[in-house]
Amino acid sequence: MDTIKEYLPEKMEGKKVLVTGGTTGIGRATAILLASQGADVLICGRHQKELDDTIRSVEGEGINLKGAIVDLANEQDIQRLFEAVDRELGGLDIHINNAALAFQSISEGKYEDWQYIVNTNLLAYLACTNEALKRLKTKGSGHIVNIGSMSADVREKDSSVYVATKSAIQGFSEALRKEVNEHGIKVTLIEPGAVATDMQGSDAEALKKKVDAMEMLDARDIAASVLYVLSQPKRCDVVQLQIRPHLQEI
C-alpha cells in the first residue's frame, strides 16, 4: 500500500553541500536557500569582500554557511577547496558547479584571456567534479548539479567564447550522467535564460526593472529550481532543466 512518505520531497537538512561561485548571483542565492533548509553549505569565491558580505547576510538566522577564497582557474586552489570540504563539512552529498565568467567574441582578448575563461568555466567543472566523485562514490549516493546556460542552444552572436564553454558543459553533463548513475549518483544540468546578475551589468536598478517586467529572472528563481531538482525522490532524475523569463522569446 502506498504511503504519503513515498511522495514527500527529499529533505536538505543535514546535507553537506559545496557551491562554487557562491558569493554572488545564482550561487549566492542557491547557497543561502539550501542552508536555510538545513543544509551544511560551503561556498567559494575569488574575493574576500563578497565572501564576507554573503556570510554576514545570514548572521543570526541559524544558517550553517562557511566559505573559502579560491581561484578555480588554478589547480592548486581546487585542491585547497576540497581540503576545505573535508575539513569544514566532513563529507559531501551535493556538489554544485556554478562559478563562471562572462566573455564575448573570440575577436576580443588574447590567448591568456581565453585560457582563463576556459579554465574557470569548463576545466574547473571537470576538476571539481573529479574531486566530488571521489567522495560521492564511496557513499554510493550524491548529486552533481551543473549550472549551464541557454546560450548553449541560443548561441548568441558576439558571445562565441562563452557559448563554447557552456556548450561543452551541456555535453559533459549528458555523458557524465551515464558514467555515474550506476554508482547511485545523480547529475542535473540547469540552463537559465537571462538572469539579473553581475554578468548582465552593474546597473542594479535597470536589472530590477527588467525582472519586474518579466524580461529577466531573479537569481532566487534559479535557486528555487536547484532546490526542486535536489528534492526529487531517489528514483527520479531531473536530467535537464531550462528556465527562461516569461517574456524571453529565445
Describe this structure in words.
Helix content is about 45%, strand content about 15%. The chain has a single domain, classed as NAD(P)-binding Rossmann-like Domain (Rossmann fold, 3-Layer(aba) Sandwich). It is globular and about 50 Å long. Helix 1 packs across helix 8. The protein contains eight helices and seven strands; from the N terminus they run E-H-E-H-E-H-E-H-E-H-H-E-H-H-E. A seven-stranded parallel sheet has the order 3-2-1-4-5-6-7, sandwiched between helices. The protein is of the alpha/beta class and about 250 residues long.
Tally of DSSP β-strands = 7
Residue share in helix: 40-55%
> Unreliable runs, pLDDT <50, ≥5 residues?
none
What is Rg?
A: 18 Å
CATH architecture: 3-Layer(aba) Sandwich
For the biggest sheet, the summary is: 7 strands, parallel
Per the principal axes of the C-alpha atoms, what is the gross shape?
globular
Give me some keywords for this one.
alpha/beta; 8 helices; single chain; Rossmann fold; 250 residues; 44% helix
Explain briefly what this protein structure is.
The chain has 250 residues and is an alpha/beta fold. The chain has helices at residues 25-36, 48-56, 75-89, 111-139, 151-154, 160-180, 204-212, 219-230, and strands spanning 16-19, 40-45, 65-69, 94-97, 142-147, 185-192, 240-243. It is built from eight helices and seven strands.
